[in-house]
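Dig into my protein:

:::
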Amino acid sequence: MTNLAPDIEWKTKDEIQLFQEEQLRDLISYLKNNSKFYQQLFESNDIESDSIKTIEDLQKIPVTTKDDLFLNNDDFICVPKVEIIDYITTSGTMGDPVTFALTDNDLDRLAYNESMSFKVCGVDKADTIQLMTTIDRRFMAGLAYFLGARKLGAGIVRVGNGIPELQWDTINRIKPTVIIAVPSFILKVIEYAEKHGIDYKNSSVKKAICIGEPLRNQDFSLSTLAEKIKSKWDIKLFSTYASTEMSTAFNECPACKGGHEHPDLIITEFLDENNENVGESEPGEITVTTLGVEGMPLLRFKTGDIAYRFTSKCSCGRSSLRVGPVIGRRKQMIKYKGTTLYPAALYDVLADFNDIIDYYIEVSTNHIGTDDIQINILSTNNSPLFIKTIKDHFRAKLRVAPHVKLVDKDTITKNKYPETSRKPKVFIDLRKH
C-alpha cells in the first residue's frame, strides 16, 4: 500500500509532484513484477521500467482503456486468488461490467479515501450519515461510504436507495446530519415530505453529498436540478466525482470550485483524442494512474469522462488539483443536426419541467447514418401543447429539438430500472458505433 500522506494536499505543488513521482516509481516496479497485462505492454512497446521516473515520463506509456479491461480482465490482477477479499463490478454504463478484485489492503485504502473525501466536505466524527444508495449488488460506492464513515468515526445508517417513507422514518428516528443520495431522489424525498406534512425544512439534515447527477454548470453555478433542491430545502450540496476503476473520489470542499484530488492515491492527467496533455483552459479526458492499489492497479486509465482541471490554490487552502464538473462521457457525445451535445445538457433542460415525473433518453442511428435523439417522458400533462412547449424549450436552450414521446409507467420501469442494474439507465445508446 502507498505511503499515505493525509497532509499532502496542503503541501506546495512541487512537494506534491515529488511525492507522487516517488510513488509512481514504486508502482512501475510493482506492475513489472506482478501484472501480466502491463508486463506485456512494457515488452511490446520496448519500455524500460527504469525510464519511468517522473510525471512527464508517463507520456512514454500507452493509455489503458475500458476495452483493455474488458478483454483482458484477469491479466490485470496482481495477487493470488487467496489474497482477494472482495469482488466488485463496474456499473456497465457504457457496456458490459468489468470485475475488480480487492485485497484487504485495498479495502483499507478505500476506507482511507472516503474518510478523507468526507473531511473535504466538512464531515467529521460528530456527524451521522444516512446512506441512500445501495451497498449490495457488487457496488463499490456504497461500500466505500460505509468503510469511510467507520474510519472517520462518524455514525452511518444504511437505508439503501428508494422508499421515501423509510428515509423519513430513519431521519426522524436517528437524526442524521448528512445524507448521501442521487440529487433527483432528494427531490422525491422532498415531495414525499410535502405530501405527508413532514417539516423537512427543520429536520436534522444539514448537508447532502450527491452522486450520479451533475450539481453544477461549467462556471460552478448550480444546475437546474440543484437549484430546485435548494429552492425548497436549504441544505448544503456537495458534488463528487469517482469511478470503480480509480478507487478514489474527488469531493468538493465548501468553496465548491471543483473536486479535490487526493495526491497520495492518484495521479490525474487530462488528455485529448491523441492522448496528448491538454492545456488548463481546454477540456480533456480524465486519465488516472492509481497509487497504492494492490489487487488491480491501473496505469494511465482513460475514464471516458471529459472535464476541465484547475491547479490554482483553492480558497480552502489546499493545493491539490481540482476536477471541474464533468461535461460528459466521450462515447456519449451526440452529433445532432450539426450540434454537439452531451446527455447532461438534455437532463438540465428536462429539469425545468415540474410536470415531467420521469424520463429516459434513447440515442440511435437513423436511416442516413447520423445520430437521432428520442426523449421518453412520463408526465402529468399529456397535451400536444405541452410536448410543443418542451421542444420549444430545447430549441431555445440547445438550438435543436429532439423527438419527444409520451410513455407509461411500465415502459419507464422496464427500460430505465431493469432488475439487473444498480443504477437507473437514463441514457440508452442504441447507435451503431
The longest helix spans residues 13-34.
